[in-house]
Design a protein that fits this description.
elongated; mainly alpha; single chain; about 110 residues; about 0% strand
């Protein structure tokens, strides 16, 4: 809000609170990675819901962040240059760390 960026929070999907049938409807075990544990399938299903919400909207761009993202104070000012530099498509900024280690990506 303070940076002049319209935003929408999409709640994640809790693998322990959703039924197996509901999870299967959101992220079938047969695709794309059948051996994903339910927790990973719930996470992927949540990401799919975010993409579906974006596609159903009138928005031309989306910035998707995890709930623990640290947002730089000048992100709102930097976004036009980022869009100009990278153009259309998907820019995925992520960092995967072993379980229990500290992770930090400043956007």
């Amino acid at each position: 809000d303070a940076q002049g960026i319209a935003w929408l929070r999409v709640a994640g999907i809790d693998a322990y609170a959703v039924s197996a049938a509901e999870l299967d409807a959101l992220a079938a075990k047969s695709v794309p990675i059948p051996r994903m544990p339910d927790t990973a399938r719930a996470c992927a299903a949540g990401h799919l819901q975010i993409i579906q919400a974006f596609l159903a909207s009138d928005a031309t761009h989306a910035l998707i962040l995890e709930d623990d993202a640290v947002i730089a104070t000048d992100l709102g000012q930097a976004l036009p240059d980022i869009l100009k530099t990278f153009g259309a498509g998907i820019l995925n900024i992520s960092r995967q760390n072993p379980s229990g280690s500290v992770k930090r990506v400043i956007v």
